[in-house]
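Task: complex structure prediction.
Instruction: return structure tokens for all chains below.
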Amino acid sequence: MDERQIPSVGEKAPEFSLADSTGVARRLDDLVADGTCVVVFYRGHW
Amino acid sequence: MADYSEHLEDLRAAGAQLVAISVDDAARTETVRQELGIKFPLLCDSSREVVKKYGLLNGGEKGGIAFPASFVIDRERIVRFRALEQVASRISVDQLLELVRELGHGVEPKTKPRQRGVFPGLMFLRATMNALRHGVRSPNR
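Output:
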């Protein structure tokens, strides 16, 4: 983990576009267009 | 599972959307999503591109997985809150949902992480909810 790279409070969050599990593309810019977005990174089921 | 969506609506009513990201592939993630009845998008970062971009790649785990972390991002894409969890513990979507459900009631979360610090956003998400409810919204609304 590179802590310097993790966006801090007050910084711009890096844009991303990822498909969700149903194949729908989700862009961060679209997600925040309607207001606040909570983005949670989780470890997953490896 | 119906009550999950009910309380997710509380989060939405507070002005927030919720998405979760892992490196799991779509098939695996979709199975989990359906089993747990999750109503918010689960994003798949199999290439680890976004996890890397956010500085959260835990390369020590099989193929590299995400360190658990949560961000609240406003409409200008500015990070308003963040919570990091560097303890190499497993986070479950179950715990996330339980927490969201309890937050919806406005009560102290009863969810007990399996291990201290397992869940990154416990205190953080409570603060988030309060902030959203009491006006830390983007000023340009």
